Amino acid sequence: MKKKGAKTSIEKALDLIETLKEKDNLGVTELSGILGLNKNNVFRILATLEVKGIVEQDRETGHYRLGMKLLSLEYAYIKNLHFLKKAKPFMRNLRNRTRESVYISVLHKDSVVYIYSEETKRSVLVNSRIGRRYKADKTAAGTAILKSKKTTGFIVEEDIEGAEPEVVELATVIKDETNHPIAALSIIAPSERYRKEDREFMKSMLIETGRAISEKISS
Question: Rg of the chain over CA atoms, in angstroms?
């Protein structure tokens, strides 16, 4: 019988994957210390994940990193998000009208993960957030999702250089047919290009687009 509070092998494996995502290229000893598991346990988990292509070992250093298999899993995950295909034309239109990058992100536990973007065509770009994880309450996207769980309308949250220096994010939500927020829709731009007089225009465009996507996926 599993002891109260004891983790299953799957939970340990997922913890290991999360650790390699945050701190790539680690050895068994380092992973053992971070995860609080003995080295034999860590080695067994790594061996199983390596067979499946989830992790790869650097033959020169003996250290481990995430494997190529995760790319196909990520692609499969994104492909199976039913609303994303319907959202893309609206995102491109929003990108063209605001001339800034537009992102979709989803809530995972207490974080948001950015999963798709329509990048600006302007010369100065913000570093891509695709695949990156942030504490939900530290981003406009995460805050918009959390607050929208308690309201029926469409709101816009603003983050100016909070999550990242010199970066501005405005975000609203995409809702399903039950009016539940399932993702965030963001405009992300360099703060030097964000003028106060643009704020209301961008907010109105976000709400218009978030509502249009929500209506499309609910129809």
Answer: 20
Q: Rounded CA gap, 57 and 172, in Å?
A: 41
Cα–Cα nearest to 161, from 182, 140, 146, 133: 140
Tokens 């190529």 locate to 68
Confidence (pLDDT) at 6: 61
Q: What is the residue-wise DSSP string for 119-149?
A: ---SSS-PPP-BT-EEEGGGSHHHHHHHHHT
Mind listing the pLDDT tens digit for each residue in 47-65? 999 998 889 999 889 999 9
Question: CB-based burial of residue 129 (10 Å sphere; 0-12 exposed, 13-18 middle, 19+ buried)?
Answer: buried
Pairwise pLDDT comparison (219 vs 186), residue with the higher score: 186
Burial status of residue 152 (CB atoms within 10 A of its CB: 0-12, 13-18, 19 or more): exposed
pLDDT digits (tens, 9 = 90+) for 69-80: 876 676 666 666
DSSP string, 11-60: HHHHHHHHHHHHS-SB-HHHHHHHHT--HHHHHHHHHHHHHTTSEEE-TT
Whole-prediction pTM = 0.71
